[in-house]
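SAMPLE LOG
Freezer: B-3
Tube label: C17
Construct: single chain, 182 aa
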Amino acid sequence: MVTHVRAEQPGDERGALLSFLAEQRGGIRRSVLGLTDEQASSRPSASELSLAGLVKHVAEVEQGWVARAKGEQPAVRRDETNWHENFRLTGDETLQGQLDLWEKVAAETEAFVRSVPSMDDTFALPDEPWFPPDERVSMRWLVLHLIRETARHAGHADIVRESLDGRTAFELVAEEQGGSWG
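STRUCTURE (predicted):
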């Protein structure tokens, strides 16, 4: 645990879930502190992952899941023809542009989660071969899934950043807070 998530108000399940999601988003955002687009797009390990690509991916995935929960189509549809673009900047995309998009997506996620009548409300999983047919999941599942997805990639981001320049998550938290680590 690099940062502490404050306790929610008693009975504020939505606030607690959204706070944990925000904490994981912060881990990825901090991983790009002080980097240029070129540095953030580099792939310093055997993996194809870059920090800019991770930012793009988590923003796109979060937007897509919230859209599905609203009964809408995701803004970007991925399949075998364009899946490779999911983890890298393409065209005129920039790291800052993806961070700005993700900030907007995060605000929309929070507004949506706070607006649903009940965390027990459900929506249908997409008709994709990796999901059970005719399965429905709750709004609670949605936020837990976003936490899991973002946390997984926050760990990737820690490794990629440390591979780039040796900076650790603890050092980046200290920098963000205006101090120094160690």
